[in-house]
Design a protein that fits this description.
Blueprint lengths: L6 E4 L5 H12 L3 E5 L4 H15 L3 E4 L6 H15 L4 E4 L14 H29 L2 E6 L12 H20 L5 E8 L5 H14 L3 H12 L8 H12 L10 E4 L7
Parallel strand pairs: 1-2, 1-4, 2-3, 4-5, 5-6, 6-7
């Protein structure tokens, strides 16, 4: 249990990639602060599941990640409940797809607020505690769309490019400290966010969802298969370890050779 005694906050962790990361952190002995949507029954079930893995403390915290004060308050509440935030995983994200000329301005603002600004506010709030304790890991879940673009995703692509830039700045500002900051850039992952895009394509084409999922993958990923949340979680654990202590400011693609083309 290489992370025994550490405290982790994972935003957007009641499902998909975030839940896989939270589960992996708990398996390594970390106390885990969950954040995200869900019914009280589902959240209690997740808390019990994760606490049962290694006996870690697991608590759920609500927050409106679109507002600066709420993100700062989230970090403060986690610090109060768990004693600190040693590992911060900025995972929460939303998506909206539309051509630029018809892209709703309110959706642009929302995507940038949740996918980019929330990470800044969380890091800003958590950094003093990490410095005081002399250790920290900041991991931003970006996207392959932080490295390359796709049509109709102006806000998402802009936010994820910005998140990688933010990652580099944080890495430079902590370069001589035992605090690291890196970004993970997944390709297509089989999550509800991606499934929503698959279902939208199926409605437009009249084909079934499985056929559209295969088509979506084949358009971009030479590997022909989805990335799994568990693969991303394993990379998070590696980045938290001593072997990764000199990996700093890197955007790590996990994309089935998408960006190798």
């Amino acid at each position: 249990m290489q992370l025994s005694g550490k405290r982790a906050l994972v935003t957007g962790s009641t499902g998909g990639i975030g839940l896989a990361i939270a589960r992996a952190l708990a398996a390594e002995g970390a106390d885990v602060a969950l954040n995200g949507f869900g019914s009280s029954e589902d959240i209690h079930r997740i808390e019990a599941e994760l606490a049962g893995i290694r006996g870690a403390r697991v608590e759920h915290f609500t927050a409106d990640l679109a507002t600066a004060d709420a993100v700062t308050d989230l970090v403060r509440r986690v610090e109060g409940a768990l004693g600190g935030v040693d590992i911060l995983v900025n995972n929460a994200g939303i998506q909206h797809v539309a051509p630029i000329e018809s892209f709703p301005t309110e959706r642009w603002d929302a995507v940038l607020a949740v996918n980019l600004s929330a990470a800044f506010h969380a890091v800003r709030a958590a950094m003093p505690g990490m410095r005081a304790r002399g250790w920290g890991r900041i991991i931003n879940i970006a996207s392959v769309h932080g490295l390359v673009a796709s049509v109709h995703k102006a806000a998402y692509v802009a936010a994820k490019h910005g998140l990688i830039g933010l990652t580099k700045v944080i890495a430079l500002e902590t370069a001589r400290e035992p605090i690291t900051c890196n970004a993970i850039c997944p390709g297509w992952v089989d999550t509800p966010l991606v499934r929503a895009q698959v279902d939208a394509r199926a409605r437009e084409s009249g084909r079934n969802a499985d056929a559209e999922a295969d088509a979506l993958i084949s358009e971009k990923m030479p590997s022909g298969t989805f990335v799994t949340p568990e693969q991303l979680a394993a990379l998070v654990i590696f980045l938290c370890g001593e072997a990764a202590s000199q990996i700093r400011g890197v955007a790590l693609p996990v994309d089935g050779a998408w960006t190798a083309q």
